[in-house]
Amino acid sequence: xxxxxxxxxxxxxxxxxxxxxxxxxxxxxxxxxxxxxxxxxxxxxxxxxxxxxxxxxxxxxxxxxxxxxxxxxxxxxxxxxxxxxxxxxxxxxxxxxxxxxxxxxxxxxxxxxxxxxxxxxxxxxxxxxxxxxxxxxxxxxxxxxxxxxxxxxxxxxxxxxxxxxxxxxxxxxxxxxxxxxxxxxxxxxxxxxxxxxxxxxxxxxxxxxxxxxxxxxxxxxxxxxxxxxxxxxxxxxxxxxxxxxxxxxxxxxxxxxxxxxxxxxxxxxxxxxxxxxxxxxxxxxxxxxxxxxxxxxxxxxxxxxxxxxxxxxxxxxxxxxxxxxxxx
Length: 328
Ligand code: ACO
Description:
Layout: E1 2-12, E2 17-19, H1 20-24, H2 31-38, E3 42-44, H3 52-67, E4 76-80, H4 91-99, E5 105-109, H5 115-128, E6 134-142, H6 152-155, E7 160-171, E8 175-183, E9 191-192, H7 205-209, E10 216-217, H8 219-240, E11 250-253, H9 258-268, H10 280-283, H11 290-300, E12 309-316, E13 320-327
Parallel strand pairs: 4-5, 4-6, 11-12
Antiparallel strand pairs: 1-7, 2-3, 6-7, 8-13, 9-10, 12-13
Helix pairs in contact: 3-4, 8-9
The structure holds acetyl coenzyme *A (ACO).
Acetyl coenzyme *A binds near residues 33, 34, 38, 113 and 256.
């Protein structure tokens, strides 16, 4: 049976670390508040001269090296991001140029924190229908440039970085078993960046006066919906494959908040620490990059063994959510 299979993963993070103690000096907050409400201890922040494409290129090179795939063999590059280098051209085209993927079509995809799962879903469909053999899927963000560093409700949550995966056509039982993606646009203004699109152009006086270029979020609403939606996406993946949570060797959830992850894992009955990948204490919420960074860390540290069932589970602004079930 023709399937798609992840054959290489990579990730890249800025060197600069911003700790909760650093944030205590910037806004009225405390390490204790941030740790108990979110689980985050530190996040990585891009330096001047580093962009979303900087990290996407580094993560992509690393994923290609692991897969043993040359850039010119790629048919498609899909890059999930809400913080592209420019509104246009796509950051995916910049990555294509930088890595020399001269035969690939390249585009960006906007699905907030679900961007990597949406991209993986498209890659899987392209491969299964025979239109592509090798696809590079990337999640990459520099959220630190759209975070209001005077707003304690949001600035504690986010970080920068990128993760990438090479997805190839493969025969057999291993690979991506299914992907499911969902949207609920009725909550589009619960988590969004009001400025810099054409409703509130970057140049308008209102955008500047009301600081509309920064992320705005109704944290409590996001929290409630995130848990329900991630449970729904996970259960859909499992039932589509005739499986139950007991079959899952490793859950790789979007890294937004430790309490969201714990509540989702508890609802699924996946409570053992070694069955859930958690790294948000190190990186905060890196949006579309969070799942591929976690996937790469799990892969490189030997947490994904042949035959293991791995469940990727995402939720983000839009709202968007989705899952991917993989047999290693
Ligand atoms: N430090 C200290 N106090 C703070 C901070 C802070 N950084 N931020 C807010 N507070 C205060 C609030 O002002 C409020 O004070 P008040 O009661 O005097 O008004 C109090 O703490 C409680 O605020 P809540 O918003 O009710 O706190 P809550 O327990 O809901 O935690 C949080 C807030 C962490 C944002 C939580 O709602 C959350 O994680 N939501 C999910 C949002 C998320 O993860 N978004 C990321 C993007 S979406 C995604 O990726 C899934």
